[in-house]
Amino acid sequence: MRAKDENKAIIIREKAMEMIVQEGFDGLSMHKLAKAAGISVSTIYIYFKNREDLLNQLYVETANLFISAMLKGFSPDMNFEAGLWQQWHNRYQHILRYPLHHRFWELFRNSPLIEKQDYSDEHTFKQAMRQFVSNAEQKGEIVTLPAEVFWAVAYGTFYTLIKFHLDNASMSRGPFSLTDDILKQTFQLVMKSLRV
Fold first, then answer.
1. Could you tell me the domains of the chain?
2. Short-list 75, 93, 88, 95, CA closest to 185
3. pLDDT by residue (tens digit) across 36-79?
């Protein structure tokens, strides 16, 4: 059995994410991936059992990276405004650092084609976020809303701005770059809509 080379594994993962982001899940085949990575198809199978294993490992890796970044400086017991701003700040910094990972993760987690497992780190993160919102509701810091409405108000605007930024395109088709000032101004408007 050939020894594993972590650099090759990184190249395989990065190329796979690029292909999925550019061409969708149907655009990823092991032969196309091998060609894009400059390796043989058999080399891919040293690192991944099959296409599904590759996809699931990519998802877990990107999710773990995201979760680790989201929990930095955050606690479910924080004051709501400070905690939500920490989430926005963490998400903003993470996406700027890993735009390819973000685009891949968004495609993967919203795809009905992929069966995902709710693993422990993801479960822990979701629990922390649910507790954070529940605490804020109990303290009267925010209005009580259905989860989907809360998410749309608390994060929908953020992710719309992120998309404009990553696409470098505004609604008027001109360039758009998200700045700290725009982010903070938008955050303040979101906070106004969530307060009791």
1. 1-48 (1.10.10.60), 56-194 (1.10.357.10)
2. 88
3. 999 999 999 999 999 989 988 898 899 899 999 999 999 999 99
